[in-house]
Amino acid sequence: MRAGFLFVLAMAPAARAGGLGLELDFAAGPTWSLKDRCNVADCPLPIETSVRAGYGFAPFASVGVRAEAVLGPEGRDFCPGNNCAGTAGYRAASLLVDARLHTLGQTQAVLAAAFGVGRLIRLQCNCSEVYDIHGSGLPVLELAVGARRILLPSPVYAGIEGRFSAMFGAESADLNVLGNAPPVRRTGVIITAIGASFVLGVSL
Fold it and tell me: Which residue from 54, 104, 124, 134 could staple onto 62, CB 3.0 to 4.6 Å apart?
């Protein structure tokens, strides 16, 4: 009995490769930064897009790689005056290892977690005398929950997904109150965001 169980486990990857083993999908939707400065003045509401390639190593689980980009305006690093229109920016990119669990059937609930590395090109608001937040090589953690439906008899699926993400170790600067002294550099800034996406994919 035990030998038979081990044989099934060993053959599972080959069986999955012949059925619904590979997943390719595209997701897009708005994302909102939760950083405190974005509660002060207007911040962008950019579209976040991602492309994912995954392998279903079990009927209910898959692991893959996801490339993700926040496609907001580039903005400006600093606005020294009162007219700060066009200062706001939110642009970033990440490369993540993505693991997913889902229920079985034509309509599936999905739970996902991802980690990787990212670059925050800029997070800024339309604020006077506020420096942007940026950074490269930042650790990224994401959690997501959603639902999808397989559009039988085709291998295409469509769904929706809500996501929480965090980037760790960004940097910014604060104005130095001592006259014209240089700004004070801040490190270790954590950037959190929530997003909602429409997902369209195919299982091969």
Answer: 54
